[in-house]
Specification:
Strand order of the largest sheet: 1-2-6-5
Keywords: Membrane, Transmembrane, Transmembrane helix
Distance between the termini: 117 Å
Strand content: under 5%
Order of helices and strands: HHEEHHHHHHEEHHHHHHHHHHEEHHH
Shape: elongated
Mean pLDDT: 71
Structural class: mainly alpha
Number of helices: 21
Length: about 625
């Protein structure tokens, strides 16, 4: 009898609302009306209104076109002012931060648009590409150091950074320092980079004969340092706009939290929904790490700036003049777009690959465990997936602690957002493994990114416009009964958790992002110094040579190398093409004679002998 009376009483109370869309104010008023008219155990102070399963099935039938329909009732949209306010408060600072991404000027606007689309649509592979770029640059720097350790007087760290940056610049335009070698690997660097920081390896003859260049003249040292300073200045990203956008994004979250914490309850804009919006901001906090890495690597300021700097370097080195112009597809496949690096899965690429560090499979004899092979192949993607997952983890945790706690439509919303990223990452890995042309790979990548952006944007749309503002998002089953935890009845719980639970989660999420940036910076510290080296002229003191060595007096004028007939034969002396009276024919004849003497001296040596450094001292 009590159950029938309760059902009839509740149905009578709800009769005035069942023809209306869901509205928090109306449902709260309905619950208060039931509290006054129904003297049963249907009201609970912690859950708002409580009913048993039989009553819930009567008043929450999905087929009921009214306010108490559980999922499929007409949904009440938020006021347009609230929607625009949330877009400005939460999404606009994030969009400003993303648009600060350094974009390589490759002469095509669609490539710049592709860069932004790839960052938003595939953050996992974007961060993996940045980590791979750091790793390859670190391998180049280590290979240069390794090639100099055999010198009696090794050059300083700065000279190694100079040469490494020049080599990376050659690769970024899709070329190697010489024409006919397509792969710069460990063996090539050890063999051809010689044993000093002033060397560069390229082809002087138009035929298949390939030689290295080695000279210790201060003029060549100056040329490399000048080129490195120009490259550093050309790649440098303006830090102030990026820092301002980053501070704006973090400040927007902090300001909204302060407003929620010092605001009274509002039925039109409940504070619980504000906390859920903050959890969405945590879900997309990965751009902090991506922007940090991208700004360190940098991009050229113009399409031809790197090429012109390298051409000037070769002119300063008095080398045979050549035009460093290649098809745009080669720079794309060689790291010109740092966030797009499908080459991380390829052993060999045409023109400019920097495949230096040998894999563990080649170093470990016997059978390699499966997990090691997986780690070696996907280590950058796994690290990037963990970085991107930190934000959704904090976002899901924050959304789950807003009543109704645990799983609800808001927590599922954040989990689906992370799932979209994960599915997009798997699709992108499949595209990166395809053996296809550069433009086809870019097109397929853009399609995958678009397929990720559309559902992700749809989720943001339905949350901003209030599709989740319905009865099903405020229900929670406790034991055998269901409760409606509307914001008017749970604001005291939210108020208690603001300082003790929500604030530590917000602060911890952003601190973790900055800690990740610090960890990457510490791991690739020497590479960071190479990318961020100063473009200013070094200040010299008395008794200091331009190459950084301290002598007891002023620098001496360099002396020309003299021909030698012993084993200490220099590789060759660099001729000044077009500047001296010697003709090109005589220059090439002298050059070939020098190379021939050098080969004869090498034939007399054992295979275990290495190339010795040039000694120009008479």
């Amino acid at each position: 009898m009590a159950l029938t009376n309760a059902t009839c009483t509740f149905s009578t109370a709800a009769s005035n609302y069942t023809a209306q869309p869901f509205n928090i104010t109306w449902v709260a008023d309905l619950i208060r009306h039931v509290n006054q008219t129904c003297q049963t155990a249907m009201l609970d102070s912690a859950l708002g209104i409580v009913w048993i399963e039989h009553i819930r099935s009567l008043i929450s039938d999905p087929g009921t076109p009214g306010i108490l329909s559980y999922w499929y009732s007409p949904w009440n949209k938020y006021d347009i002012k609230i929607v625009l306010g949330r877009l400005i408060d939460y999404k606009l600072p994030l969009a400003v931060l993303i648009f600060q991404l350094p974009r390589a000027p490759l002469g095509k606007r669609r490539l710049e648009a592709f860069t932004l689309l790839h960052l938003v649509g595939s953050p996992v592979t974007s961060i993996a590409g940045l980590l791979y770029t750091f790793s390859q640059a670190s391998a180049v720097l280590e290979a240069v150091r390794r090639s100099h350790r055999q010198l009696p007087s090794p050059p300083d760290e700065k000279d190694c950074e100079v040469l490494a940056l020049v080599l990376i610049a050659y690769a970024s335009i899709g070329m190697t320092p010489e024409r006919n070698v397509n792969v710069i690997n460990k063996e090539a660097i050890d063999r051809y980079l010689s044993l000093s920081a002033q060397c560069l390896y390229r082809t002087l003859l138009t035929q298949s004969r390939q030689v290295g260049i080695q000279t210790q003249s201060p003029e060549n040292t100056d040329a490399f340092r000048k080129a490195a300073r120009s490259l550093a200045a050309d790649r440098r990203v303006e830090k102030v706009p990026v820092l301002a956008a980053l501070i704006g994004f973090v400040a927007a979250v902090a300001i909204k939290y302060a407003q929620i914490n010092h605001k009274d309850y509002d039925d039109d804009d409940p504070q619980a929904i504000g906390i859920w919006s903050l959890s969405s901001s945590l879900t997309v906090s990965w751009p902090i790490v991506a922007m940090f890495l991208a700004c360190i690597i940098g991009v050229p300021k113009s399409e031809d700036s790197t090429r012109r700097i390298l051409e000037q370097l070769e002119e300063d080195l008095n080398l045979v003049k050549r035009k460093l112009t290649v098809d745009i597809q080669y720079p794309i496949r060689s790291g010109a777009i740092p966030i797009y690096r499908p080459d991380r899965f390829r052993q060999r690429r045409p023109n400019g690959v920097l495949q230096i560090t040998p894999t563990r499979e080649s170093q470990t004899p016997g059978k390699v465990p499966l997990w090691i092979r997986i780690w070696n192949r996907f280590k950058f993607d796994i690290c990037a997936l963990l970085i991107v997952s930190t934000g959704p983890a904090f976002g899901i945790g924050l959304a789950a602690l807003v009543p109704p706690t645990a799983w609800n439509c808001r927590t599922v919303d954040k989990f689906v957002m992370w799932g979209i990223y994960a599915v997009g990452w798997l699709l992108q890995i499949g595209v990166d493994h395809l053996e296809c042309s550069t433009w086809l790979g870019v097109s397929l990548t853009a399609v995958v990114d678009f397929m990720v952006v559309v559902p992700f944007a749809w989720i943001i749309f339905i949350t901003q416009f209030g599709l989740f503002n319905r009865l099903g998002c405020y229900t929670l089953k406790v034991g055998d009964v269901w409760g409606v935890l509307l914001p008017p009845f749970t604001w005291d719980i939210v108020q208690k958790r603001l300082d003790s639970v929500y604030l530590p989660l917000l602060v911890g999420a952003f601190i973790l992002q900055f800690l990740i940036c610090g960890m990457v910076l510490g791991w690739f510290w020497q590479t960071t110094k190479m990318y961020c080296q100063s473009d200013r002229e070094p200040r010299q003191t008395d008794g200091e040579l331009e190459n950084g060595r301290m002598l007891g007096g002023p620098p001496e004028r360099p002396r020309a190398a003299t021909p030698q007939t012993t084993d200490e034969v220099p590789l060759f002396t660099v001729p000044r093409i077009g500047r001296d009276s010697i003709s090109q024919t005589d220059m090439l004849r002298e050059f070939l004679d020098t190379v021939g003497r050098n080969r004869d001296s090498e034939d007399k040596k054992g295979p275990e002998d290495n190339i010795r450094p040039v000694d120009n001292t008479p």
